[in-house]
Every structure is written in C-alpha cells, then in structure tokens.
TrEMBL record:
High-level lineage: Eukaryota, Fungi, Dikarya, Ascomycota, Pezizomycotina
Naturally occurring in which organism (per UniProt): Exophiala viscosa
All copies of domain Glyoxalase-like, residue ranges: 14-212
Regions crossing the membrane: none
Superkingdom field: Eukaryota
InterPro entries membership: Glyas_Bleomycin-R_OHBP_Dase, Glyoxalase-like_dom
Entry-linked Pfam families: Glyoxalase_3
Protein name (Swiss-Prot/TrEMBL): Glyoxalase-like domain-containing protein
Length: 315
C-alpha cells in the first residue's frame, strides 16, 4: 500500500542557499543590506566555504554562501553560478527517521526521475564566537530514469539539483538558527519568514515532478489555476513552519510551488540555470488591512529572484 500523504506536511522549510561572489559576500549589495539584518555565520568544517546568515522569526534562514578555496565540500554546488542554488527542508523527526520515510515514499514512486536519497551525513561549522554547530544533511542522489528531462546539458547545464535536501540539527537548533533572538530576527523590511519556494520545471515533465515532490515532502499536491498542467498552473505542497506562531494565519500558503515557465524570464532561467529553485517569496506583515504588495528585492539580477510579499493576515 502506498504511504499516505498529508494535506499539510509536518516537513518545513529549513534554509535557502544563496551563493555570492566574494565582493558581494564581503560587502553585501543594497538589496540585501537595506532589507535584512545580516549576521556572521562561520567557516564550514571542510574549510573551503564560509557563510553569513539572515535569520527569520519563523525559524528559517537564508544562507549567504561564499567559496574561499577550491571546494572540498558541497561538491554539488561547486559549478553553480552566483544566485539561488538550493534549498533545504527539515522535520520534527530525526534525520534517520526522515530518511527512512522519504525513501519509502520514493520506492513507491519517484515517477521515473531517478531520485533517491543518501543516508544522513554529518556536517558542521564553527561560529565566530567559537561554538560549534553540528548537523546531519540528507541529500538527493541522481541516476538516469525514463522521465528525466533530456538532454541533460539543456535542462541541467550547471549540474542537476532539482530536488531539495534535508537538514537536521545534532546540536541545539538555536546554535545554528538563533530565531528566538529578536535582535537578530528584526529586519528593516519587516520580514517574518519564508512563505514559499518556487521551482521551475519543463512543462512536459510537470506531472512527474508533482509525484516526486509529493514523495519528498509527504504532502498532497494542490493544483491552482489553468487546465491540468498548463503554464498558468502552479502545483503547491503545503508545509509547516519551524515556529508556527510567526506564520499564523498562513497555514494554507507556506510551502513549495512548482510550475512550468510562464514568461521569457522563466525560460531564460531554465536555459541558463536549469530545473530547480527559481524564486523565494518572503512574508512581510502589512501595517494596514488594505496594504498588499509584492516587491522583488532588485529590478534585475540575483535580487529579482527574491520577493517580499506584504499583506495582512487574520491572526
């Protein structure tokens, strides 16, 4: 019998990986520094990368990643250009229990996309204050399958990363994600947390990715707009939040949305960066009931793929 799916999964967003070149990492551009409180992270234990963090009240974060030496870790990111490159999920269960549950669902069907997950492996970094954070990452592995988009150099021009990974803390989560510290989670733009991640996939393969993302998240797919899977259609997978109170009233909005290219910008993204994370939408509570706004952090470039969504919410 196939594993059951939840209307709202207990899986949640953990963090977004935003790769920056060295000048932008050391002196973040205005679209970052004017909107967010950015804190120092540290150096990863392999020694080839460092990070800065944007911590949100909902318990999620954006990781600003930068290479400081030829990569000896995170090799699946090594060939990626600056910008959004990956995103992580987490769950209330342990890393190993989550691995077992996701593996069971994928064994039932990854719908021919050749996706499995490797067993959890340890990671860590030393904070600027000398404390060590340790965690487990559970990453997807890819093989050929009958429904993998081809040719690969067209749909995965900078290596394949079309499936999120999982991150579970070994040390207390507050060491890695200090979301209870209001001095760190109060941002100039008013952001409270990650509303959704948008993933762009080929129109011809969207039904396969719907089944894959259901297996990974454990969430039922919900189709919005359009007729079946036309470009105007998005399919969402509703997730929980690490700190639900910060996203109260948005229980039917937090999640992952997948869709086919809708415009020239999406087509260009798919051509240049491949199937995978396309946009991050960040929730900002409105100051008035009538205030509704969607604003990319920048008019072009990397900042255009991060969007502030401002609206009022019934608490």
């Amino acid at each position: 019998m196939a594993p059951s799916l939840a209307s709202v999964s207990d899986v949640s967003h953990d963090h977004i990986v935003l790769l920056l070149d060295t000048p932008d990492f050391e002196n973040p551009p205005a679209w970052l520094s004017d909107n967010f409180h950015i804190i120092e992270g540290g150096t990863h234990k392999g020694g080839s990368s460092r990070n800065k963090l944007i911590i949100f009240e909902d318990g999620t974060l954006i990781e600003l990643l930068n290479w400081i030496a030829p990569p000896v870790e995170f090799l699946d990111w090594a060939s990626k250009p600056a910008g959004l490159i990956d995103f992580a999920l987490t769950s209330p269960q342990s890393a190993h229990d989550t691995y077992a549950a996701v593996t069971e669902r994928l064994e039932n069907s990854d719908d021919g996309l050749g996706v499995t997950f490797s067993k959890p492996s340890g990671g860590g970094r030393q904070r600027k204050d000398g404390q060590h954070c340790r965690w487990f990452v559970t990453k997807p592995s890819y093989s050929d399958g009958p429904n993998v988009p081809k040719p690969s150099d067209t749909f995965f021009p900078t290596t394949r990363l079309d499936t999120p990974f999982f991150c579970h803390d070994e040390t207390p989560r507050e060491l890695r994600v200090p979301s209870n510290d209001k001095t760190l989670t109060t941002h100039p733009c008013g952001a409270k947390g990650i509303l959704s991640v948008e993933v762009v996939v080929p129109e011809s393969h969207i039904e396969h990715y719907v089944k894959l993302y259901s297996a990974v998240t454990g969430a039922e797919p919900k189709t919005h707009g359009g007729f079946r899977y036309k470009p105007s259609t998005s399919v969402s997978f509703l997730l929980s939040a690490p700190n639900p109170e910060a996203m109260k009233g948005l229980e039917d909005r937090v999640g992952i949305d997948i869709h086919a290219p809708r415009d020239a910008e999406d087509e260009t993204w798919l051509k240049e960066r491949g199937v995978g994370i396309r946009e991050v939408r960040i929730f900002v509570p409105a100051k008035g009931e009538s205030e509704v706004d969607e604003r990319p952090l920048d008019s072009e470039g990397i900042g255009a793929s991060l969007v502030l969504v401002t609206e009022s919410v019934d608490q």
